[in-house]
Amino acid sequence: MSETLERWGSKRAFILAVTGAAVGLGNIWRFPYVAGENGGAAFLLIYVAFVLLLGIPVMMAEILIGRAGRRGPMQALGVLASEAGASRYWRWLGLFGAFTVFCILSFYSVVSGWSIEFLVASVNGNFHGASAAEIGAGFEAFLANPGLLIFNHSLFLFMTMTVVAAGVAKGLERLNNLLMPLLYGLLLLLAVYATTTTGFGTALSWLFLPSFTDVTPAVVLHAMGHAFFTLAVGACALMAYGAYMPDEQSLPKAAFAVAVLDISVALLAGIAIFSVVFAQGMDPADGPGLMFVTLPIAFSELPWGSLWLSVFFLLLLLATWTSAINLAEPMVATLQGLGWRRSVSTAVVAISVWLLGLLSAFSFSTLAEFRPLLGRNVFELVSSIPPDIFLPLGGLLIATFAAWVMPQALVVKALGVGDGGYVLWRTIVRWVSIPLTFIVLLGGLL
């Protein structure tokens, strides 16, 4: 099997691609409501600590496997395991990662389709002057309309896979270079707007002045799990990108840059969202509905609310689009590694994700009473088990392979930090990151 020939065109392109994979629903949808449910600043501080101790080291492990193998995830793991004299069954970890991303992208596409619907509604001014009851009832009616959910799910997936089909340079890299700066520009614009609201000071205090009386084992566990979810670690997606990484690029610097960019999105989104929520005297712990019910209610009562709500949902759509594009790539790369053409691989991935996504879309109407496991419907299962169990399990196996199985010479070369830097990284991964990842996995199972 020959090495992957494609490369990112620049160091910046690689960083934007990995950031594009990481920045999405985890930062703009999941972080605000998880932070809201877990005490704000205390959760934030613990989350950042786990990004440094858990997220970045395991992210580096995943990327270096792809960089050392220069192939799709399955092929890279198989070749590197063979060179280490280890079992070639390690290659199945690449297939497990592709399955994890497949599950995540199926519900991700459905939820991202909501942002299309809400962007159109915001531009049309549908929320302006509406009561809280009307907005809440409208969201429930939307979820109960399978035709609308399927249309938006299909449209979002078409937008995503069209870019993936164009390839690394013409598709992913070109769109990342365009959309990621635009995403940050919109986010900064919303954060500046937040400074004009009466809730800005309260939001800053709530986000940055921790009260450690709020810290419980559950808060710590949620922070650890979110560090995994938000960095897109554990699904071999970053392994695929490592295969395209420029030879001269510093892996530690790139991983740190991605983590900083990822955290900054969560912080700016938190400032923008909670400033509006507190300005209207609403509850920051409103759960998953914070994005699609609480915010429209809050913005509807503010001057120029329809405009700023439109900007917010445009931001959300761009973030989920770049993330979905970058999550779909490793599945396509895995099939390409089996000898399939890119066009065929993309079509197979698109149709498969679309079909599984239908089950999530129907979970709010036709299949609402179909609860095959743990009393949960399909959407609840697919949106919880892969992020809470599959990602940490994948991260645990990836970290174990990189720190315990791969030949030292290959890891040192892929890391690019010399023997001293390698020993430091290996020590952190073996004795800090892997045990923490195991705790995250247990938390997801219990």
Automatic annotation (TrEMBL):
Alphabetized UniProt keyword annotations: Membrane, Symport, Transmembrane, Transmembrane helix, Transport
Membrane topology value: Multi-pass membrane protein
Keyword Transport: yes
Predominant location: membrane
Membrane-spanning residues: 12-29, 41-65, 92-111, 149-169, 181-208, 220-244, 256-282, 302-324, 344-364, 389-411, 423-445
Keyword tRNA processing (UniProt): no
Subcellular location: Membrane
Domain of life: Bacteria
Family according to the record: Belongs to the sodium:neurotransmitter symporter (SNF) (TC 2.A.22) family.
This protein's name: Transporter
